[in-house]
């Protein structure tokens, strides 16, 4: 089960309170919590794929941590990055591997 997210409020609560509320309550509170439709583990794999494909590496690192919490293994993340290298780009894969080593090498 997804833990309650407060990143929006923690980082933008005073500056952009509506955005923070949408992030925490709608995206993570309503969408991510629909585990009867799609498990959080699968949502993590999809989200990491989308972020890598777009080259959004600060967000990718955060979502790799969430993915790890949601049960995604190092081997699965390595396979995800390897697979996407051919679709999203080789340089993006190199950058994603740097993050994955940092996140999944903490074991």
TrEMBL record:
Where the record annotates domain Carboxymuconolactone decarboxylase-like, the positions are 17-101
Superkingdom of the source? Answer: Bacteria
Q: Name one GO molecular function term.
A: peroxiredoxin activity
Q: What is this protein called?
A: 4-carboxymuconolactone decarboxylase
Species source reads: Bifidobacterium aemilianum
């Amino acid at each position: 089960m997804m833990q309650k997210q407060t990143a929006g409020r923690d980082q933008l609560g005073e500056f952009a309170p509506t955005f923070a509320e949408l992030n925490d309550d709608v995206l993570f509170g309503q969408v991510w919590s629909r585990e009867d439709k799609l498990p959080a583990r699968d949502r993590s794999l999809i989200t990491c794929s989308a972020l890598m494909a777009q080259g959004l590496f600060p967000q990718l690192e955060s979502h790799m941590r969430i993915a790890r919490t949601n049960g995604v293994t190092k081997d699965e993340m390595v396979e995800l990055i390897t697979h996407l290298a051919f679709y999203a780009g080789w340089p993006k894969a190199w950058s994603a591997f740097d993050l994955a080593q940092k996140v999944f090498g903490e074991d």
